[in-house]
Amino acid sequence: MKTTILSIFCLVILQPLLGQDTTYYKDQYEKKTTSAKRASFMKVSNNDNNVKNIQLWNLADSHLVYSKSYNDQSKPVGSWIFYNPEANYKYDTLTYYLNVPDTAIIFSSEADTPSGFEPAKYGDSDEEKFIAIYQNISYPREAKTHGIQGQVLVVIKIARDGKVSPYTIKKSVIPPMDYESFKAFYKLPKWDPATKDGVPIESYMVLPINFELE
User: Fold this and answer.
1) Contact 110, 119 (CB under 8 A)
2) How far from each other are the two terminal CA atoms of the chain, in whole angstroms?
3) Which of 181, 177, 180 lies closest to 155 in space, CA to CA?
4) What gap in Å lies between CA 157 and CA 120, rounded to an integer?
5) Tens-place pLDDT, residues 194-211
6) Is the dihedral of CA 36, 42, 46, 52 positive or negative?
């Protein structure tokens, strides 16, 4: 806690020297700006090599609410961090456009399966797989309000023991949709892993998550 408070203090004191911009808010939704003395939240932003980095701090209990980055075309990049009070106050992460290792085996509906390989699978059909995935996804309120639809492409990693985890966002719509798509894969049971000549291997898979309003 002392380290976090010191970090916030340094951000405030050094921000003119570091080329940072600071905005103070009354609420975490950043709707009402206010003075530093009356603020409950503080947003700090800076530019580094054409990447805009943004952090929002909760001043009441001195924790980082989120950390985000955008490129010069206002597209999300890098690793995003979200404070999640519903998960015992741990941090959730969201990663954009992370390269898959050169030696990785990647399965996609857009490419043929290499000879001798079998992709990882869940259940008896694609339908069963996607039913399990969509049970973990909620349509973001921001997207509903503004009528936003689209498809997010998520790269997931399936370990040799079948454990599934999200790896990176390959195609983004808006961050709330990306986040819903990404975190859904933390909640899945183990899959049947991919195999090469019948032997389980680590693999990656590109999966589409569609958001459509009725």
Assistant:
1) no
2) 46
3) 181
4) 10
5) 999 999 999 999 999 999
6) negative
